[in-house]
Records
---
Amino acid sequence: MTGSHVVTDENANSQAPMAGRHPMTGNRMTDEVTADGHGFEEHHYDVVVIGAGGAGLRAAIAAHDAGARVAIVCKSLLGKAHTVMAEGGIAAAMGNVYADDNWRVHYRDTMRGGKMLNNWRMAQLHAQEAPERVLELEEWGALFDRTDDGLISQRDFGGHRFARLAHVGDRTGLEMIRTLQQRAVELGIDVFMECTVTQIFKDGERVSGAFAYWRESGRFIVFHSPSVVLATGGIGKSYQVTSNSWEYTGDGHALALHTGASLINMEFVQFHPTGMVWPPSVKGILVTESVRGDGGVLRNAEGKRFMFDYIPEFFKSETADTEEEADRWYDDKTNNRRPPELLPRDEVARAINSETKAGRGSPHGGVFLDIASRRSAELIRRRLPSMYHQFKELADVDITAEPMEVGPTCHYVMGGVEVDPDTAVSIVPGLYAAGEVAGGMHGSNRLGGNSLSDLLVFGRRAGLNAAYSATRFGVEPPRVSDTQVREAAAHALAPFSVGGGENPYTIQRDLQDIMQRLVGIIRTADELSESLGQIEELKRRAEGLTVEGHRQYNPGWHLALDLVNMLTVSECIAKAALERQESRGGHTRDDFAATDDFWGQRNLVLTQGAAGRVELNHQPLPVMPDELKSLFEAK
Amino acid sequence: MGYKLSLRIWRGDHFRGELGDYVVDVEEGEVVLDAIHRLQATQAGDLAVRWNCKAGKCGSCSAEINGRPRLMCMTRLADFEESETITVTPMRAFPVIRDLVTDVSYNYEKARQLPSFAPTPRDADGKRRMMQVDVERGQEFRKCIECFLCQDTCHVVRDHDDNKKAFAGPRFFLRYAELDMHPLDTNDRRKLAQDAAGLGMCNITKCCTEVCPEGIKITDNAIIPMKERVVDRKYDPVTWLGSKIFTRGDRGSREEVRPREEA
């Protein structure tokens, strides 16, 4: 019966809160409505989801399906979130290409990729549920590339034992976000676009709502909601060279911290080994790992495939040590080991860094990524159309004829809100987190392809549980007080009240410089201490910054508010990085180069203490059950 | 090497505005969006502009550059003479919110009206099968980054706001075609495309195809085939007879759908 997909009558009810505004942007063009004491626009929902990337959309769909009234609040237009930038694919052990693949193999790869610091339960749920989440996307209209049998095709990626990534050329993120977006629209879920949340309210210990402003008009909104899902993505904008967009200012991390939740693993920041390095205006833009998955290799200025010199002990048994074996692996995975170009990202990024430091880099300070000499032009254009387009348009490089120049770029933060693995709830009742803003799933380093699957698996879990929790607040729903609202409004308007101060863009630029230089790929105690001092100084400067213009669509004001989050998150990263005296995954210490079992048993947990100071504590790692431990013993 | 670029940028809101003259330092290899960002960071902190990925993947930074609808992040300064003044104005087909930011809610309204994908059941093993060759047509259309430049340039609505109610525009004809060509979909949206979406108002001037930054052949591969399918449905006597004799629709298991109600 196809009619059920067409009927829209049920949607009429969910439209009610949006009356009088643009049906999709939700933006109100008329004067604001005075409700009660504070006079701001107000909305009541069961679940408010902050962020409209893969995790946010999946959470909203799940909460809606569980019967909740749901709102999505996002800083950009619907469909523009950073998920759209994901290229390679969604890791899921569907076994379409290699029948031997199953969740246990995926689980093992994920844990080893994260250097065993992952929350074991999250990694298990992720590996078990990812295949069904992918099939669900197909149910909602996604058109994945196919195998010869007509099944969803799966491609090779770093750290994965088998070809496992469901993909659409090299634009998988676009396919995923469009599919989820179209599904959310079909379900009639309210979307507040170009709307930024500045604060989460609590009534006692429980979440009660959120405070936000319309970017378009600068007007404020109060959301009343017993459940809030953070799906705000990462923190990359705190670095100079990053693949992340302006939205990635660590809003969810900072909101969680201010609301009383805890952050874990913040010292682990992933530098993707291959970002563009030239021209300067595109420095940092991602070059997908699929280039290597599809046969591309890394060479230094001498033309040498240098990755063979950087195979760590930990991965020796599963990595090819000759070019011949590595090249055979693409067609025969049973009898050959993986090429070292497909080691986990942290390993490859460090190797590139060493090569350029040793003076064997490319003209513009990267290394060469060569697929032109190894695959046909036709295959490259078919498998990597966006890369072809991107290099052609932005760098004047034809990747079917010449090598690309690439270097590490800040890509992903493994750290995030500490959550319960099964329900995605933080330590604050009613506050959930999913996707990049949540911590634990990826340990010290994330494997490529595990992000998109993470968004789907934990987005759904967060949405379901947030909806469930919204019905269990006891007798009285949690309330937002007028005083809380007035304070939140005053706080948001503070940047307009100072005259003659600094421009927020200058402070942002200085922060990016500090993080890049002192809290980058390779770290030392001295530099990290220095960074903390400088971040303090920036926080002081930020208190006196000035915004010109007025509240209507004012990017200067928006940045001033986002900047506070960036400073908070940067402090967390530097603090945890200084504390962890070892090297592991996305945290490399020049002064503590070895991986250390002592540190392998603990997470660093950050909370906001009295007087707003960030506090750091050690916490033992959850213990993996024996049946899962056994997966790492054999062979 | 670096030089001083002259920029004219439209500054204003829904009610009033004017072109502002600026001179900004630019570097080799930069794009128009870089120049706008530098202007924002150094001279005009409140200059409103939408952007996200800065790599031609999200479709946020649409504007008109010297009158031509383009993505600011994919328009290289090297394509212009250093002495040339570059004029950047907001997309003309949509109401201005502020400076280069326009109200594109028209597109989101049209998206809501489109009956969504309704697949056949899964195969016995819980999976679905489609051949690569059959998904490729739809995949071309799903490359769309929703920059709305095709909507902006389409003369049916560009200077005729009144037509917007009855006309979904090239972006959504693409979507109709994608679903109509989906191997597993069960809806028949041809009548809808013609009646509610205004496919008939398009007279295939191919302006949309010309401005598409993804190079999607909107007119040739989506609109024209869709028009042909609509004609098939309307005039083919055999099909007509078939639809009277058989209980199913005229094409396999597809069922004709009604429009989603206006939001």
---
Amino acid sequence: MTIEKSHYELIILGAGPAGLTAGLYASRARIDHVLIEKGAPGGQVLTTDWVDNYPGFPEGISGFDLSDKMTAHAKRFDVNIMTKEVASVELEDPDAKRIVFGDGSAITCDALIICTGASPNKLGIPGEAELAGKGVSYCGTCDAPFYRNMHVAVIGGGDTAVEEADYLTRFASKVTIVHRRDELRAIKILQETVFANKKIDYVWNSRVTSIEGDKEVERLQLVDNDGNTSALEVQGVFILIGITPNNEMLPLERLEADEWGFIPTDGETLTSIPGVFAAGDIRSKLMRQVVNACGEGANSVVAADHYLKTKSEN
Amino acid sequence: MASDKVQQLNDAEFDSAIGSEQPTLVDFWAPWCGPCKAIGPVVEELAEEYEGKISIAKMNVDDNPVTPGKFGIRAIPTLILFKGGEVVDQITGAVGKTQLVDLINKAL
């Protein structure tokens, strides 16, 4: 994709729910903007089977459809979306915050909204990388149909792990949830669903130490909190143990991050650098859901607009 | 913005499509897969940029059960790079363009 111009008032990084909402608000406010996304818009919600807690959809909606609707909504107001992979962000010059692309080209802006989101965590154990795509998966809704009538394991006990375990039982004959604690962390309504599902069983207080298999996953080696080891014969393993911030392109020596790499902001989404805002899952916060990502995306544009106006008056 | 430079493959024509000396990158995908959709525009872009150097093709795993089974595909998107009918390398997940360019360069 060729670059149309070299400087914008506002650049938004990432087109998940936060970035798409920011784009929508920026476009309606007639702010000179561009929304940069490396692939198709949607973000992590694209891989969510079903969204039951986003207001306005009383029957629920698939994550796929919700991201389609958000993208269509942004496009209705002519949000300027650029498909390009960002290599690095340079924040030395307050008047020209610089976005450098994978191909070496660059554009600058006055205000920047970071909506780069997060990606699934990896376990970092032997066999995980070697068997990725060969029984090791990070997306139940993507890969469940490959496990028809098979026994699979889900690692994790949060909302995503529990939702995906339930989804996997549509295809798999049996799903074993392996969790390092003695109770699930997922919200109660999701716990009720999985505890009622006869195809799901549990290995509590246990961690996976390695994933084994010749060409495909054959078994997991487990250790419990007392140090006892065991093997679990499965044909697939879904690793759903939380998320890691997509911050590799950000200058963290200059931009403040928390101990996990998320970006702290004030109540108006302003980061430690004037004119740089953060919204959605990349932001340091307690809850990461579509509903607050959208709210923060909208808020960040109003805050950025205020910054731009104050800047131009001085 | 579907590119006419991306060939849609099926099980029947797969072997002849990957048999050529010019490398072929095949994107195994399905319509219900979010990350497949996310990576779609990048694959289209590569087809434009590498026209004449490599062929870029897609295979819908829903409609074509044989080939994905043959290559042990258990996650999508999986992109496999072929040269002369042999697998050069493969990558799984919605990776960025840089990683796909690195993959392609292994066969050039």
---
Amino acid sequence: MKFKIFSIILMFIIVFSACEKIAFDKKAENSNISNFNYLWEQVNQKYAFLEYKNVDWDSIYVAYRPLISNDISEDSLFTVMGKMLNELKDGHVNLISPFNISRYDITMLGPVNINMRLIKENYLLDNYYSTGSFVHNFIRNGDIAYIRYSSFADSQITDYELDFLIEKYKDTKGMIIDIRQNGGGYVTNVPMLLSRFTHEDTKIYETQIKTGVGKDNFSVLEDVIIKSNDKKKYNKNLAVLIDRGSYSASSFFAVSTYAYDNIFLVGDYTGGGLGLPNGGQLANGWPYRFSITRTIAIDGKNYENGVKPDYYIILNPNLNAIDNVIEFAADKLLENNKISKL
Amino acid sequence: MKRYFLIFNLLLSSLIYAQIYENSFPEYKGNYFGMDLGFSSGLVRDLLTSPLFYTSSLAYVDFNYLHISEKNIFEGKFANHSGINSKFINDNFYIGFQTSFDFKFSWLKYLQTSSDESFKNYLGLDVDNYSIIRINPEFMNAASSIDNISNFAIVYQAKYNYHRLEKEKKFLGLIKYKRKEKFYVFSGKLSVPIISMYYRPSFTNPGNATLIENAVFNAYSLKAKAFSGLNTELAVFRVLPNGNMFKYAYSWMFATNGKNAFNRLEFSHHIFSLGFVFKIN
């Protein structure tokens, strides 16, 4: 009798173990139309800048939905959905298929504002140093440090690298960090770098994340603060060179400089990209991403469409062997170290 | 086929001829330390990032302490599942990584009125905390995701002591051999979470892209869910004369934070494990 009872209990447990299919919700539908609707809805609910960019997402649906049917090819589906996403005009928005990646090329919004060949031949010269992701040298007879930082994504900046740079250029009258065409990368490199230009805790911007379906459903604004530390500091002024190709982490770096009196921006507007992207996946397996946070600068403004330079200077390609953006920054740094921000 | 039939008959006959001598079962109480190793497979879906069910293939290990007395069983367990979540769809293979940590404490009370020496019933409580870290490179900046689930559960366990006697037998009626005496405990366990607390991203998953932790956890919410899953365990313990045990177990854990939850998380693991339980005193 006891054994029978025990057997019944075991059967009961075994039957329960097999009921996950009932407990789980049904599988997602995987058709062209359902995938299009899913992507549209995800953006509609979660994208952080529909209102800021004044995008009528409903009308986008009306325009693109008729182009989708369950009979069209994968390539056609991808093309339509990629075009729909590009209506957001956001470099952080991508759709990724095994055969293509949709993207919005933010660098095309402005003129090319850097000529690397010119910089190598006339500023970095043959004897430039390469320290981690930084290439650098003295310019203006040793009065100015010029540091080219072409990507936040190459590696995490180390304290050793920054100590080396600061020690090498401690006697200069000013420093230029050139992040033109720097498409971003590790956002953690931003405070790492900026912490070497301040002796006190500095609030660099505020951030918030989308928390609900409503267009205004965001979390409370959270201060982002760079903590002071006792590491080596550069105590002179800093010019940061930017252009439309300065995107994402570069824009974070640029917008953070608004909090510093000893740092100014020279060049074109950045490309923006101040919303951090959230990844996802469609039922056909294609991953996508778009921005789900927004950043508010210390002046209370949202610079998602591009961080404004303190001095708007566009590269003049007609000048022989001269980068007028670097020259302007160097002149400003040498003007008795006085900065008058716009 | 004939060979399988004979083996089946042999096994069946060993069960049929087995007799139970309740008084001769080795003492099954005291303090034990156990370790289980195994393999876990299952399904996982996090609707915040994907509508697809990924198949989990995970290695399983747990360390546990067991105290068995006349009236109670207390168990403390730490378990880890680590491995991959994969999905094959439209000729493409997508893969992610997962590790999870489970801290569980169980207290079970012996139900004397419905038990005897060979068949024992227990009823008690489970408290456990389950953390899952998932990394799916396909989701780029949202590649990492951390979820924490705390459960308060009611547990029922049934144990059946089975003594297989030493016996002279003949293989196929020809070859004499002596079947050794063995002691087994069959165990079935059912745990029903009454209240579960899900701490996970509520609407968006900021993943690993953000600069400050506060921004990530602003997107998290703590929500309670009643009857959010089920845990079962079927185990066979072979009790050695010195009190140590081998454990063969199958367990199943299933959890969901609700069909209507916007941030729906669903997972299920089937765990097959082999364990060693050492009697401490």
---
Amino acid sequence: MSEHLLEVKNLQTNFATGAGIVQAVRGIDLYVDSGEFLGIVGESGCGKSVTMLSIMRLLADNAAVRADKLEFNGKDLLAENEKAMKKLRGNEIGMIFQDPMTSLNPLYTVGTQLMEPLKLHQKLKKKEAKEKAIEMLRIVGINEPEKRINQYPHEMSGGMRQRVMIAIAMCCDPKILIADEPTTALDVTIQAQIMELMQELKEKFSTSVILITHDLGVIAQVCTRVVVMYGGLIMEEGSLDQIFYETKHPYTQGLLESVPRDAELEDGVYEKQKLKPIPGSPPDLMNPPKGCPFAARCRYAMRICNMAPAELTTVSEGHRAACWLLHPQAAAARDKEV
Amino acid sequence: MEDKRPLIEVQGLKMYFSIAGKGFGKKSRQTLKAVDDVSFSIPEGTTFGLVGESGCGKTTVGRTILKLYKPTGGKIVFDGKDITDLSEKEFSPYRKDMQMIFQDPYSSLNPRQTVNEIIGAPLSVQKLVSSKEERDERVRELVHMVGLKDDHINRYPHEFSGGQRQRIGIARALALRPKFIVCDEPISALDVSIQAQVVNILEEFQEEMGLTYLFISHDLSMVRHISHRVGVMYLGHLVEVADVAELFENKRHPYTQSLMSAAPVADPKKAAASKRILLEGDVPSPMNPPSGCPFRTRCRYATEECAAAMPPLRDIGNNHQVACYNML
């Protein structure tokens, strides 16, 4: 039995499409401990959402998921059948999706949708479920929950719908909450409200949270540990401070330099720095490069980078990066600033 | 900056839409005040950033300036000439000086046209080229300017990534050598690493050609990066305007303060140090806005005065204007 709450080893997900096979996730190891706020960051198409959907077994039939190990709370998820997975989803693992406009069913009231998991998983009677649903709505900060429970999703704003989604995900007291870009569709002031709420609930219910996002700002605010993905592989993982201040992978470095971080001078005056974008665009996963997926855009790329992907190397405790520059023989190349 | 003359002047701009209400017939129609009494000016060669949450009217301001809508009231002055009431025909010569870059690079390019046709179309419409050779030459030049290659010219939009499509959109806007470009959320549909590429291109062109931008965005860190002057909108009203450094260091409107404190900073130490001012509730419906100051329902400092009338945009010195009775 593993010590982690969720542990994945060598996860690979391929999609069969009309044009060929897309290798969306190409062998990643991942773990989540209890009480952790893990952030997975990467650009669109890097495989961050597919990783989570693969673990939950929520992908369509054209997806082939393989892993050496996929364990949740001591259970081997690879061996579980669909019926057992259904018991897990929404009960022990809660999920929140990006778009609060489409992830609620427009034909049912909020109350019905909130009571469904309670009746199904917790075997609550209708009356008990309703009481619990009202309580959950109050916890997520919705005013007049007795009235709101009979409303339909279209009667609510985007921020409120996302609160309802969180209430549904949290109502069975899950061990892990997976949030896939929960605030991307929302305005900044509403985003701040939702992030605050997620942090509050994490403490209150001592849930582990996996936050999938492309926004480094959101990561910096709430996460304790960060995984950086690119081209279906993990590029770097470490604590929040290790990723932001002791950056080891050129891709992570590139991401951090792409967002304006105006330097603050001593007298409080801001100096504008020119943005350093990452040139080029992400690789085509239909035909992924043989070497490091980032090599084509990397300013430090060496010959070996195009020949084989680098293994994740431990830099310091809890901090790993997959880059050939970390190889002992690459010291000379590392100092080369382009 | 004051020595430069304004290229765009907007005075008391109003844009109301008539919207179908709950019943039938004309009586049930309601008025949506998307933009209500907005005034600002943009000096030549500078960028004016317009920020605010969705539905605050920032896109409508951009579109109304380009006369894609007929304004309900107010005045738009371009390069010293009042263009508010020009007919479509009279306005046509001005079109080539005023262009737009759109938010969604997927829906703003015609999927059935090649890059050559997309970028060349404005050249032909405005009759700026006399022969096909001249047109092809100019298209090639534009394609190179935005960092694309010769062999991209005869391809279709679906063959490009989001960032490349946005480059095509920029090339199309630049084709007529405009003086003024409305950039309507030009980077919000792009990945982080690509956003910086597009912003850098826009900045380079401004330096080279002296372009004037209206940069509409909800991304405060990018607005701070690219703008010279910034306006903050809330529910159709401009609530605060100032030069960029002044605004970010000396924000006086309660809404500007909470908006900026809510924006995530990609720096864990700063994020931990900064205090977030959380706003209660949501933006009210623009169909049924609160009386007086539209922000008062979410404002911690609201008084009775705020409910009575909309506070006027007052100058507080340093070229800084705020619309608030209880400014901070």
